[in-house]
What does this fold into?
Amino acid sequence: MDRDALSVVPEAAPLAGVPPSGSHRGVFRALHSRPFRLYFIGQVVSSSGTFLQQTAIGWLVFRLTGSAATLGLVLAAGGLPSLVLGPWGGALVDRTNLRKLLIATQTAFGVLAALLWALAASGHASVVVIVVIGVLGGFVQIVDSPARQAFVSSLVPADDLTSAVSLNGVVMNSARVIGPAIAGALIVTVGTTPCFAVDAFSYVAVVFALVAVHPLVQSRPAHRESGSVRAGIRFARSRQQLWLPLVMMSLVGLFAFNFGVILPVFARQTFHGSGGTYGLMLTLLSVGSIAGSFGVGLVRHPRRIYLVAAAGAFGVFLGATAAAPNVPLACVAFVLTGASAFAFVTFTSTTLQLHSAPSFRGRIMALFIFVYIGTTPIGNILTGWISSAAGPRVALLAGAGACLVAAIIGARVHTPPNPDAALTDLM
It folds into this structure.
């Protein structure tokens, strides 16, 4: 891999059993790569367990405290490491063997889930314990998230990267359906503790998949100098195709993607529902997100107008969700919100990967994770405070406003052709 800032995307040599790039069309074309298929299956299982656990934690903390503000602080704790150290995780990713790194991080997540399960089963899963485990997981997340994003590009031919990124988004969004649905059933029937056990065992699948995966492209780690955080920021800052999606994502991520704080309060206080109501809302939000991710997969090349439209639609449907007078209409609004929200996320992630030189991809995706997830502590605290002071409907409206501002910025910024001739533009 060329370490120069203007390095181009290399052509991946086809492996036996992998059809030539471009010979298949459609959203599923990346699945013709065996390495990506194995990784895809493992991620479906593991991610479902992760969202199952997150759902259970949100319900458990709100039941223990009864406070939306406290729930926001607890959920914010897990994002603190990414907020402080997130960009440095990308620098480490660009200097490390991605497959070995992911085996280590996924194993660590499994151990933390097993620890939470053991503590919950013994009656020691207090708010403090949940915060500590969340912070430890946050340190693992610093390198795991950008590594997973960057690893996808080594599993498929270059022409199928859009499909792979889209399907990777489908994995996460399918998990948002499967995980909360299982969590809702378990919470109602046997409580939250079994959710932590399921999550712990789910990591076995992804570790086995990573052991079996052999990437199509073996990239060489960057030198320490060219692999610095500062070099990555300079690279992103010099290209509108990179900094524009990052700025838009920072606004949307800070104010709009705080469903973990809003939904428990929305379900329980606004509509006087149960854990089943909470799980239903999360499930329908995720059903919409799957549709949005699949829609993006049909697009061969993301353009600025798609980012603008997705951000604007997200804002409109968040506003509609805030105005919903009852659970059925709220659920309809959640489907539309999920579709637009994760179309925007998938367009953003795809845009950044397609416009990043390989030697910078880990750092660029770390910046993406930083503005998407790393801002979670601030966003959760702000959203929890707004929800406590004015109600969850106002918190949803604040997110809607942020989305519309991001759409306006995207519509007004001109994106000239990418300075790297082999990369694409965002006109």
User: Anything to note?
Assistant: The CA atoms of residues 186 and 194 lie 7 Å apart.
